[in-house]
Amino acid sequence: MATFSQTSKPVWNWFPGISVLDRYIIGELVAPFLFGVGAFSSIGVAIGTVFDLVRKLTDGDIPLDIALKVFFLQLPYYVSLSFPMAMLLATLLAYARLSGDNEILALRSCGVSLYRLIAPALVAGLLVTGINFTFDQLVVPAARYQATLTLDRALHRDTTYFQERNIIYPEFEEVKLESGAEEEVLVRWFYAEEFDGDRMKGLTIVDRSEKDFTKVVLAESANWNPVENNWDFYNGIIYLIDADGSYRNIVQFDRHWLPLPRAPLDFAEKERKFGEMNLIEAIDHLDILERSGDRKKTQKLKIRIHQKVAIPFACVAFGFLGSVLGTKPQRTSKATGFGISVLAIFGYYLLMSIGDALGLSGVVSPWVAGWLPTLAALAVGGILLWRSSRN
After folding, report:
1. CA-based diameter of the chain, in Å?
2. What is the predicted pLDDT for the residue at 370?
3. Cβ-count burial of 322 within 10 angstroms (0-12 exposed, 13-18 middle, 19+ buried)?
4. β-strand partners of 111
5. CB atoms within 10 A of CB 313
6. Beta-bridge mates of residue 55
7. Antiparallel, parallel or unpaired: β 164-176 and 213-225
8. Contact status, residue 80 vs residue 135, Cβ threshold 8 Å
9. How confident is the model at residue 10 (pLDDT cuts 50, 70, 90)?
């Protein structure tokens, strides 16, 4: 039987503020954590990316160098996803090993509380959370966006990559009614058939910002002029319509500038997938969506923003849960630990889907929807710890 004194090694002695017990337990977490990162990220990238790339490669849609480039650009995303899963596996196996060798029992008989034994797992979870969050903000979104660009260019070599179609951007303002109540009113409606990354084409703009008349602009194309801070419209016509529906004026033009807001351009440029945006970009995009009045998309993005913080913090929740489960007096093999981790992850993402549904329907607030699975994991761990400490 291995004992604490026999197996103690000088792990991370360059952390003088950490006690011998903490170093010992955290040292036990390192190997299974690295194993979990490798195992879970390999499974994720195989299911999510490799199978699709192999099909495109065998069909002749993309060459080998593009497939390899997309693979390595997608890999950071799956590594990031694996961190919480690996933390659960690491704590489960490490604490189960200590419990199976009666080291947990020996430490508790010396007066070390179960809460004190769990503390290193929480510290390690916080450390991994910080690493995961930083990695998820600085590396993952940029890599995924480049993977999308690379794959799309390879599949559409003869077309312009950046091309958004049917861009609709409504803009609302809150106005005060005679009764004193506030109501959102559509003040501007912007439609473009196509945006190629530089110029909008096939435009229709309805501007109701003036009280006395409505302006309708039809134009062949338009682009944003950053020097003058306005829109340059080309080959179009402007209708000014009075409140009674009669035409006040009609103006045809070859080129005409209008002091409309830049928001439709920002909206078109930032229509990338949520996973390709970091937290700051997502918050900026949320501001654009809120001004557009699209409540469903706004609510969904609010939930995703909370999840961007909650998912890395799941490293703490899973570290807590795994350490509590591992202190049970039984031996857990790697296969058993891996199976328990998979079931826990399945439950986590099931709760995430439930949180999405509740948040989008307005039953719960976006932060509750985003944090629901992480809070549930913490709650389950807390209940199990309370019950174990009473024994």
Report:
1. 95
2. 92
3. buried
4. none
5. 20
6. none
7. unpaired
8. yes
9. very low
Under a CB-based contact definition with an 8 Å cutoff, are residues 236 and 256 in contact? yes
**CA-to-CA distance for 135 and 315, rounded, in angstroms?**
14
For helices 64-100 and 20-45, angle between their N-to-C axes, nearest 10 degrees: 140
Q: How far apart are CA 93 and CA 34, in angstroms?
A: 12
> How is 177-193 classified by DSSP, letter by letter?
-TTS-EEEEEEEEEEEE
Q: Which amino acid is located at 210 in the chain?
A: E
End-to-end Cα separation, the chain, in angstroms: 24
- Give the 3-state secondary structure of residue 237: strand
Which of residues 270 and 48 earns the better pLDDT score? 48
DSSP letter string over 95-153? HHHHHHTTHHHHHHHTT--HHHHHHHHHHHHHHHHHHHHHHHHHTHHHHHHHHHHHHHH
**Helix, strand, or coil (residue 323):** helix
Q: Can you tell me the distance from the alpha carbon of 64 to that of 51, in angstroms, rounded to the nearest whole number?
A: 14
Q: Are 341 and 108 in contact (CB under 8 A)?
A: no
Which residue in this structure is represented by tokens 């913080």? 309
Q: Which residues, 6+ apart, have CB-to-CB distance to 342 below 8 Å? A: none
Handedness of CA 285, 291, 293, 299 (dihedral sign): positive
CA distance linking residue 121 with residue 246, whole number of Å? 73
Q: What is the DSSP letter of 225?
A: E
**pLDDT tens, 73-86?**
999 999 999 999 99
- Amino acid letter at 164? E
- Enter the tokens of residue 300: 């969904």
